[in-house]
Design a protein that fits this description.
Mean pLDDT of chain B: 74
Strand order of the largest sheet of chain A: 1-2-3
Number of domains of chain B: 1
Structural class of chain B: mainly beta
Number of domains of chain A: 1
Distance between the termini of chain A: 54 Å
Radius of gyration of chain B: 16 Å
Helix content of chain B: under 10%
Oligomer: heterodimer
Largest sheet of chain A: 3 strands, antiparallel
Shape of chain A: elongated
Order of helices and strands of chain A: EEEHH
Number of helices of chain B: 3
CATH class of chain B: Mainly Beta
Structural class of chain A: alpha+beta
Largest sheet of chain B: 9 strands, antiparallel
Strand content of chain A: 15-25%
Number of strands of chain A: 3
Low-confidence stretches of chain B: 1-50
CATH superfamily of chain B: BH3618-like
Chain lengths: ~80, ~190
Amino acid sequence: MLVVTRKRNEAIIIGDGIEVRVLRVGRDGVRIGITAPPHVPVNRAEIYELIRAENLEASNSQATVGALEGHLRRTGTTRT
Amino acid sequence: MSHYALNVQALDPQRDNGPVVLSGVRFDAFEEAAHGGAIVEDAPSKNKDDAGSKMRVETRFGTFDTDRRSLVEFPAGVPAFEQCRHFVVMAAPTIAPFQCLHAVDGPAASFLVISPRLVLPDYRCKLNPADRQRFQVTEDAPLLWLVLVSLKESGEATANLRAPIVINPARMIGYQVIPHDSVYPIRYPMVKE
């Protein structure tokens, strides 16, 4: 891991066009501004991890079409 | 927020004012309402050379016939499957009202998906300007919205309303968006208790 010290209004550049700038340093947190190209999504790590875990579970679910049909029957859903 | 059972009536094109059908895939566009049920026939494809070439895709939900024109590019993959850059969305009577979102490259990723409006009829989600730019959205372009479904052996099913899959059919670009101000849960129970 690269560790750098930055003061307020100082920034780092990552790759092609990603800038991370320290906007404010407070007692409880650091306010950071991120500039990134449109194709680079920027998310808080904790929510990204939650989505990641849920995606893994959705992909691993062993449900088959058979189980699906059972589920549809249980929920009283009719086919179109 | 109350729990709804699946409401498949909304699939009726007469009621939902204009799904777009693209290569056998139903696009339930609801963010922009002005498109009035257009049929997209020749969406721009990044694979012009092999446009239309047939593909057979095997998933745990069945085997689907599709074609390369239906490939949707996911420039960032989806979380946990960041290496998967191309997906197909496949619909079939055998899994309706669900559809299958299946990666054709990278690690094996295959999801059951459904229109969020079938899970929660008044589901609303706005793309922020950065997202709109990411999708190369034009003003009146309809977008396809889907949510991943997690289906347990017990029959319990939840839908991830927090992070919908959004596809721009005009560009065949998709992302799983994580709106910063979303009020919806990651695990929304789909079965009415």
